[in-house]
Fold:
Amino acid sequence: MQLPKSMTRVTLLTRYKRFLADVEFDDGTLLTAHCANTGSMSGLTTPGLPVWVWRSDNEKRKLAWSLELVELSNGLVGINTAQPNRLVAEALANKHIAPLSAYSTIRPEVKYGEKSRIDFLLSEPGLPDCYLEVKNVHYSRQKGLAEFPDSPTTRGARHLSEMEKMCQQGHRAVTIYVIQRTDCTNFALCPDNDPAYVAAFQSATSAGVEAYAYACAISPDEIRLNQALPFL
Structure:
């Protein structure tokens, strides 16, 4: 997936109110950029870090610039939580996710269960429908290890319970963890941040819910889903 041509490397001054980030351009210009991430972004908000922002041509936007990438000493990190679904949609269309390559019909944002909405519903004649949930990952505390979640997510645990019910009804259910980092080679769940989510994951996978983690290849020009990573 191509990133906007207006991508520009600037310096992060501060990130605040979740959706806002003040940045400084090389010429000294100070601007506030939109930050498409409601999470803690632990380790990614240190003042002085190089970050990449892009400018929208939509004149109706309150903030023209958006924060997209954080540049660490060992790689790039994507912070836009809308990107994983786009990346997975692109990879599904191109048959680049091997466990799901047999499905040809891909429907996004389908209501199911009790007041839930699945990211993608995959179908193919002769195969069980597949309920696919996508999770964004950019949290890392140990070198080479990506972790999820970085904070409690009752919504995430509820989705796992709903997918467990789909498996019990004879359908297929899959969670894909999209790791928007270029410096991680392994993935693990994080029980100290959210033991309830980990318990829900264990229950769901015991019932047949599948889970896969995929790294991303990231540059200031593009982001794409890359190789699968092992769970620890």
About this structure: The chain has a mean pLDDT of 96. Residues 83-229 form a domain with the Trna Endonuclease; Chain: A, domain 1 fold (CATH 3.40.1350.60).
